[in-house]
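ok so I'm stuck.
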Amino acid sequence: MAEKKGLFVGFFLGVFLISIISFASASSSIGNPKHSLETVYGPSDNITGWVNISFSSEPVNSVLSDSRGNSANLSSVLKKNVAYPYSCSPIDCNDDYTASSGSETKTITLDYGNSKIYGVKLTGNIFSIDSFKFALDSTAGAYCTNQIEIDFLDDSVLDARNKNSSDSESCSNPKNYGCFDSERTLEEFAIGTTPYCEKVFFTDSPGFFIGGWIKKISGSKTIKASVYETLGGGEIANCILPDTSTTGQEVSCNVSYSITEPKEHYVCISSVNGSGEYRTRGYSISNGCGFYGTPVPSATPAAYQIFSQGKQFGPVGTAEINKSIGDGRSLAELAGEYITKKYGAQNCSSGCIIPIKIKSNLNQDITLKNLQVNYQKDIGIATESNFYEVSKTPAKVSSGSNKLYLDGLGFSVPSNLGNYTFSLRLNNQSMISEKIEVKDIPIIKSVNPAKTASAYPTEFSVSVTSKYNLTRFAWDFGDGTPEITTTGNKASHAYSSTGVYNLKVRVTDQRQLSASKSFVMNVSSPRELINSSLYDAERDISNLEKEISAFSGFYQDVLNLSLNLDNTKQKVTSLRKSYQNATSEEQYNAIVTEIVELNIPEGISKSKSAEGLTLFSGPDYVNLPVLKEIGGGTYDANREGDYVNAVLSWKQENLDTGLGFSELSGRYPGYIEPLARIFEIDVSEKRDIPYDYYLIIPELEGFKTDTESSVEALEGYVYINLKGKKSVSFSTTEDIDFTNLPVFISPAISRLTVIEEAPPEEKPRWKVFILIVFSLLVIGFVVYIIMQEWYRRKYENYLFKNKNDLYNMVNYVNNARKKGIDNRKIEENLKKAGWSSERIRYVMRKYSGRRTGMLEILPIRKLTEKSGGGGGKPNN
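replied:
not stuck anymore, here's the structure
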């Protein structure tokens, strides 16, 4: 018994010591100097600078975290620090594997969405892998989506899947007609040898039915349906359509064409032999997806009733796997290349594990079997037939002391101005600590272009937001050339060789406050740049068209106007043709000149949105001279405040006005740029209003409305008659949202009820007392006016130095109100979240449309506008 007890104690002591040794073997240390960080930032800026650090067998999944809770794993940090020298074990810096429990078959039950990794273990000094194949059995039956995926090497590349299809059933996949709309007025067209083509969406399927609407008028013809890539090339697949009726109907045929990723193709219909007359149908449309001719066209001015339909996946059964469907290479070739890249050579004396990942998309039982790996070692020919259970272990990093840059890693400063301490940790180990200051400095948003060609003089421009004049721009292009200084936001530079560089821009404003930001600049040869840029542009345009089509009609109009997508698409098509025909460096450089000017977002997103709000108009937005010009009438200039209050009171008494807000932004590499802000105003009359009333809007940049025919313009304003309208939507590219929407609603001045104020009754006073009281009143009045103007102009900015805080609070109040939460509970929740009582009081009053500042007893803004001859737009 004592012997057993000693064995247990020894066992646990051994485990403990191994753990301690393992922990101690991983380490990092800070060098001298420790670090260099920028110490002045704008609100929410990313930290820039470096840490002097070394690693010894540090796991790549170690986590760097800052004092604000932002974090990044070591692997992603090293990938962004391309100049930081380090080594990994294994040398590819990806996960390693340990193997156990080998057997010739492995059976597992996998439910939907689950996966399992097995491994094949090779040993010895390997000269070559001659063959590598295995089989699997699955109980999965026919299904609408692929039932099983094999990721050989566990590198997120699909290498094998079920390739069986079911011809008897097309599953639930709907027919895809591209942009064709059957509700449009259709025209019939005679089918000849020149094809009618439609760009349609192909789903992830093992095969397809393709076809269209065909009408037989006379004779007998053979009609072929064909599939083409959208970017050109020859015919991929075809089939012969069955004969049709004289009344016309949709017919289809079966093509054995399989794709693993959904994408668009052209389906074309044409006659290949026979005589007579057959027809298809469609219509003309300026921005269509169909054409009459040979792929690929320069324009698609039509839409035809042509479709594709994905087929069902058949039962999996037994699958034999010996090559990848990704690139067609054998598993033996892939395994040999994997060992060389992962372990540095084909020396597997300690054992090399080749992983096989299986993912299930349907509940099923899977059996791996019949593994046969033949490989040559230095001592002879070996065979492996066992599958192993495997577990992952993270790769380990080692390096000397070098500068690890923090730029672009997501470590950020607070949004509020002030002094803070920034600290950085690696796992639980403190690394650095630095005092920083958040100031109202310029905000550097982006640099364009983000890539260029070597030896090509490129003009770079930086986008900066600042309330102050910018006086200096310093450009460090990261290639060892001297820094360039400019007074404007543009600079020209030519990189002498290809590579990846860090371009750093520092801007200085009139107060001598500076901000800097680094950008990754990819430099390639002119041909590589053109080829990759055209591919990216065509892909992005295709994605944008899909994303735009998912929005409602007015949103689509706004996005097409903001992006000018039709012109961009034509330009890219033209550049593709120029590239195909180019033969000289001069021609390639001319294309590069246009390529670097392309700035197409990768996608579109709603960066902000709010619904169910109440439209509130402040007195500052009411313009009586404009209202007079719209509806006529007169007003007493000495009583402008009374008339402004009458406008606001009229709306409060007669209308319920709801407000929805959306900000649509483009997603560009490394940043997001607002494209348009859309406002949707719902109008409901509390009682029948028998006269006209108007929505009055100052001229806004990029203004567009869904009721263009109802818009009337004045100098500096537009207005819409709301009588009979339930809602109005409009958009602008200006930086405004629902918290500062400069609109008001009013009828003609003659319809307003202006409250008369009775003059105060004069009473006899002693002259001295009157003089004293008058002097005090004058002083108090002046002080009040100063405070009134401060509250009107500065109070909101004082409370909310970061406008996102105001936006988030108002949005929270709106959502809480919709859930039925009362004001007292809303205020309590906001206090618990750390918001001050003053901010809460301001937001609650602003949301309810009540006055947020002091009572305006003298309309200073109106007086200054009159004396100055009018106002202008605020600076963006």
